[in-house]
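Q: What does the assembly look like in three dimensions?
Context provided by user:
Components: two
Sequences:
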Amino acid sequence: MDRLKEEILLHGEVRDGNILKVDNFLNHMLDVNLLNEIGKEFYRLFKEEGITKILTIEVSGIAIAVLAAQYFNVPVVFAKKVPSQNLDKEVYTSKVFSFTKGIEYTIRVSKKYIGKNDKLLIIDDFLADGNALKSLLDIANQSGAETKGIGIVIEKGFLEGGKILREEGYNLQSLAIVESMDQNNIVFRD
Amino acid sequence: MDRLKEEILLHGEVRDGNILKVDNFLNHMLDVNLLNEIGKEFYRLFKEEGITKILTIEVSGIAIAVLAAQYFNVPVVFAKKVPSQNLDKEVYTSKVFSFTKGIEYTIRVSKKYIGKNDKLLIIDDFLADGNALKSLLDIANQSGAETKGIGIVIEKGFLEGGKILREEGYNLQSLAIVESMDQNNIVFRD
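A: Here is the predicted structure of the complete assembly.
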């Protein structure tokens, strides 16, 4: 997506630890116009898949998922990272190790909200090592739902997450794949 | 909003500690169709206010804020609850005491993203004692922005938050105000 790549080149800041900071449109301020275009693009890519629900993970996946969901006319379910006393007792859980934060955490989805009749589109903002995504796939598998597609806004193509998932046969579509980046330069895969 | 009230009556679960659990359309699974109607209603209520940005707080405010923002054609800024190493050093901060969780936490907004030329609409899912909202207002005031409106999906009208903010002169609009609730009954204010 050209407009997305332009925004990344214009506003993205590369930080130590393979961090690409895009706070001004994706992770703190949300450019709803651009995110809506992203949602439409996910619809174009996955509209033939019979999607019944979009699965994402808090926090930054939510905005993209709900804007995309309008086009699919399906609900969004977001996995919770923070334990909540309000959550149902019956939950699917999976552990995630975050390289960015150096910690392990558990994500949870109520068993009520995804099940074996669902055809899922999984959406997230970033794909790096793919740890969060593997845990979402783990939860999808536990529920018996079928994962029909994975939509990612920005993939760090120099890390292994995307490669592994494509080799496993997932229909993974990333709207911008960063081939390499440093403080002076961000290069996209064609 | 009648459809919202119907959903609350149909799916809301009242729990100890004044908890109203609406996980199946607002806080875990997101009924994007209904949330879009909510966004449109906020636009109808605040469209004359010259809104330049919508301010909300992670997590559950984000979905409503982005869907509303489409109609206002403005960006969303969400206050962060979790410290992030990626956040700018220059931030507005404010402390929130959560009665639901029994803990105090700090919310943060980068100084880059709201400022004295902004006219803000503040959106959140729930209003109870108003502590989170007071902290958002504190951050708005620190930035010099003008708060032109506050849009709430569900207000617990039997608590003081809404009353105090209206007395302070804020243009606070809640789409459903719960006058009383227990495990058998939820009553709305007319």
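Follow-up: DSSP finds six helices and eleven strands in chain A.
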